[in-house]
Protein: Single-stranded DNA-binding protein
Amino acid sequence: MNKVILIGRLTRDPELRYTPANSVPVATFTLAVDRPFLNQKGEREADFIRIVVWRKLAENCANNLKKGRQVAVSGRLQVRSYDTPEGQRRSVTEVVADEVKFLDRPKTSAEPEFDSIDVNMDFDSGNDDIGGNEVPF
Structure:
């Protein structure tokens, strides 16, 4: 069995390309996945895992994902080899995703920022016209 499930954040925007032979869409991105433990300095470390997505899912990822977005990815682990122009043999380990779930919504300029809410607002000033026996909902 070869099944990988990851949750992490994109380190940069996905890169969308098309295969030269038949123009099949393929997108790649790197996912930063936190390790479940702290290092000796008490800091959380992350693994940076290359993700490959094909066809319609590749186009959806390229159009909707940006650096920093949190996603869940499921797929299979793949190790492939290639030769460099200098004749060196290289291998790449990557996850070929068959499912990508967007876990957070993208921030838009229309959304209010919660950091700017005045926490000292006077909440006693509203709904003064409601009687003691009346239910406001």
About this structure: Strands lie at 4-10, 15-18, 25-38, 44-54, 70-83, 89-102. The mean pLDDT is 84. Residues 14 and 29 are 5 Å apart (CA to CA).
